Amino acid sequence: QVQLVESGGGLVQAGGSLRLTCAGTGIIFTINTMGWFRQAPGKHRELVGDITSDGKTNYADSVKGRFTISRDNAKNTVYLQMNSLKSEDTAVYYCKATNIRGAYWGQGTQVTVSS
Fold first, then answer.
1. pLDDT tens digits, residue range 46-100?
2. 95, 79 in Cβ contact below 8 A?
3. Are residues 20 and 94 in contact, defined by beta-carbon separation less than 8 angstroms?
4. How far is CA 36 from the centre of its chain?
């Protein structure tokens, strides 16, 4: 059974940094794209950014220059380094991974940025 487990969320002051980690287990088929989404209260879930198996990245305009996605293919793990955090970054952050069998989601980790 495929599982994605996020960690690293928490409370941070505006301007601070956090690093999220998402580790996948039980994955048999090669993961293609791994990505991070977020959902703030009362809002739709939105893409933060993603990374392909060969390292190509894509970011939402709102996080470009502040967030960096990286991955370790051998460990089926993706990271999200978040710098210069703003109050509007407050949300539950979800990890997503896709392969030929489908898409998988983590349970989410809360990130709260205090102003």
1. 999 999 999 999 999 999 999 999 999 989 899 999 999 999 999 999 999 999 9
2. no
3. no
4. 3
Model confidence over 5-25: pLDDT tens digits? Answer: 999 999 999 999 999 999 998
CB 59 within 8 A of CB 115: no
> How many C-beta atoms surround the C-beta of residue 2 within 10 A?
18
Residues 59-73 as b/e (b if ≥16 CB within 10 A, e otherwise) read beeebeeebbbebee
**In terms of Cα–Cα distance, which of 86, 93, 92, 91 is closest to 114?**
86
What per-residue confidence (pLDDT) applies to 2?
A: 84
Dig out the tokens for 23 from the structure: 């580790």
